[in-house]
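Work Package 3 (structural annotation) set out to generate three-dimensional models for the target panel prioritized at the project kickoff. During this period the team completed the workflow that converts sequence records into discrete structure tokens, so that structures can be stored uniformly alongside our sequence database. As a representative example, we reproduce one entry of 495 residues exactly as it appears in the project archive.
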Amino acid sequence: MTLRVYNTLTRRKELFESLAPGKVGIYLCGPTVYKPSHIGHAVGPIIFDAIKRYLAYKDYKVCLVINITDVDDKIIAEASEQGRSMAEIAAEVEADYLKCLKTLGVTGVDAFPRATENIEKIIALVQKLIDNGAAYAVGPDVYFDHTAATDYGKLSGRRVEDALHGTRNLTGENKRHPADFAVWKAAKEGEPAWDSPWGRGRPGWHIECSAMSMDLLGETFDIHGGGVDLIFPHHENEIAQSEAATGKTFAKYWLHNGLTRVKTKAAGSEKMSKSLGNIRTITELLEDFSPETIRAFVLSTHYRRPLEFSDEQLAATAKSLETFYRLFDRIERATGADVYADGKPIRKLAGQAQTDADTAFVNEALAHRLKFHEAMDDDFNTAGAIAALHAIAAAVNRYIEQTQLETQDNETAKTLAAAAGVTLVQTGRILGLFEAKPQAKITETDESQIESLIEQRNAARKSKDFARADEIRNQLSEMGITIEDTPGGTIWRLA
């Protein structure tokens, strides 16, 4: 199987070939830390964490870098509004961001470089641009000369004239051309500033990412990622200044994820923004949904497509995950095997099939496992990969019913069903799913009440009082309890 990725730079899917055999460097544009993290801030990290996991599964040694912009107009404005320092605001919001990512299972990030800790490297890059004739100083301000990039616009497809149409030159009155952009900004009174050869000031936004990515990954690296809203001007300017400084290709592959949109009944869907008042912080979402639900929700859409966000969509994802949780419980009841523990996957036990039904089941499970990998090899299609996981789950459920495993003693079927469950868990973990059993939070008193209600429901069903039985089921549902009637009796679990 060969991995292909869609490269925004070439506008086509390409065979993925890393610059150095067996190694991959990835840089993802991170947040400007001025407000608590919302779901949009988690999308890119979740996607690229899954991408790293898959590349690691394919035996690549991957270095994933996500930057932190901790000096910016927005942070300065927020600090002024709150009457606090920029550093204090940035540190507080960054801590919230990192805590949220950890909770969501984003564990593969190798470095979170901060702009304020890389000022010397940024100044050195600006000086290199000046030395190369690609940037010029106007007093304490330094601007990149866009004509130094003869292929400017190659990522976005925009011409300079198109990019400037309908805009006004509100800042940088001494620039040579409106398309030139700041790589170093003169200090304003009361704002954070650092000494430089051109006077006290702070870096421009675009230059931060160029300096930090090249410092950690090299002057040319494999993958640069970010949201589609960053293609222009941020990523376009990164390419222009980086390649003008080094004379080398900046990044080989450019991967861009779709924007997060809020799904509403009134407007259909709208951009997530502070002005529309439709932002939900990750901390708020975690009060209602599990981390695994949020992660699975993000990965259930192909990364290049817009992510339609709503509580209803998250609830639907939670319900779809219940399919797996119920199956894992079912396998444990029928076989005694804990699929979350170490165990042999079905491909290693395929030779134990004895009947035609066994062989057909093994072949079906392995075929869907193959589809998982085919989906991931097709531009990291996590949506298709998750669909393959559901197909494996459906096959296992059919096999358990076909072999009457819950009531019949069939050691071969037990072995194969358990192995398929292990395969599901191990394959899901490539995406960061099924890392641990869902933790039920319930007291002994609650458990006693639930068992009592189930006994009452069973009695109602026996006496054909189905209205009362449905009433009890609804009561349990309102308590967050899912019940399932099986050949061995009624079982329940915390949804």
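Confidence is low (pLDDT under 50) at residues 165-170.
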